[in-house]
Amino acid sequence: MATTAPLTFSSLSPRVVGRAAAVVTVLVWTSFILIARASSDPARGGSLTPFDIAFCRMVGAGLFLLPWGAWLVRRDRALGLGHASLFGLSPLPLRVTVSAGLFGGLLYALIAYSGFVFAPAAHASVLMPGSLPLWTTLLALFLLGERITPARALGLALIVAGDLVVGGASLLRAFDGGSVWKGDLLFMMAAMCWSMYSVLARRYALDAVRATIAVTAFACFSFVPLYAVLLLTHVAPGHVFTAPLPEVAFQTLYQGFGSVVVSGISFTRMIEYFGPVRSTMITALVPGLSALGAVLLLGEPLYWNLAAGLALVTLGILFGVRAVVRR
255-314 pLDDT, tens per residue? Predict the structure, then answer.
């Protein structure tokens, strides 16, 4: 009787792995926007500050990834391979670890969570995943030498128009004392940080697992000890050590394992297969799904400018994907 070999991850084709990574990334990014808004918005009763949530994210990811990184480093050294850093916890050289960790770990988390304090999830759904193709294309142009075709330029123009429709309206209301524009600006900055990380991952040809471990190791060494000291000395106004344990445990598990371990590996794997520009354009589903979730689950209103901006951004991303596929 013929036997069938068991299906393993390594036996899957690059196409299957790439598409599966894209699906996982879209789902995690959508839930990240909704959960981050529900957790960071002071009006919803959460006791953790944005920096508290970032702290939970880094600690949770470190619990999973730092032992993994130490094992990889020991194995590489036994084989005479690899360039480790950060006391043998990062399997990448120090320069790559710092550059990838700064943009893909530390700055992205601190800026993104802070944005949810001021702006609703519907704004984040448009401005964060929506502006990724814009920033990634511009950074890839300067750092990787990629060419911007006329079709891709048209898609980027639609994305810029959508961002202006959303962010411009909140900026005009700033003269009336509104603060939503602060969140919009932070969302755009967070998207730029993540785009920088995606381009660096492509430039250095980073392995998905090793890149995510290195990003986490840098965050744990640079932010976690410093923030813990600031909390214990009552310099920082955080509550991570006094908040209810179930809330801290949930944020540590979801933000650390889900948003960093699962999403980080799947996003980098997607970059390996699709490339940085097309990978960020594949996130066309995220703005629509997260905006719809914000309306249905968080009770946020969907104003005309948000709907128009969402339509323009989604159309721009889809147009860009179509242009890249034709190339």
Answer: 898 888 888 788 778 877 777 666 666 766 777 788 888 888 888 877 777 788 778 877
Cα distances (angstroms) measured from residue 195 to each of 38, 126, 201: 25, 15, 10
User: SS3 for 85?
Assistant: strand
Q: How many whole angstroms separate alpha carbon 156 and alpha carbon 168? A: 17
Q: Do residues 267 and 198 touch, judged by C-beta distance below 8 A?
A: yes
| Identity of the highest mean pLDDT range in 4-8, 101-105, 140-144, 293-297 | 101-105
This prediction's pTM: 0.81
Q: Which long-range contacts (CB under 8 A, 24 or more apart) does 308-311 make?
A: 308/162, 308/165, 309/126, 309/130, 309/162, 309/163, 309/164, 309/165, 309/166, 310/122, 310/125, 310/126, 310/130, 310/162, 310/166, 311/162
User: Do the beta carbons of residue 97 and residue 204 sit within 8 Å?
Assistant: no
Q: Distances in Å between the alpha carbon of 50 and those of 55, 81, 86, 114, 222?
A: 9, 39, 26, 5, 17
| Residue 7 DSSP class | P
Please give the angle made by the CA atoms of 130, 133 and 135, to the nearest 5 degrees.
100
Cα-Cα-Cα-Cα torsion 35, 40, 43, 46, nearest 10 degrees, comes to: 80
Q: What is the pLDDT of residue 175?
A: 55
Q: Where are the domains of the chain?
A: 15-36+46-326
State how far the Cα of 85 lies from the Cα of 272, in Å rounded to an integer: 23
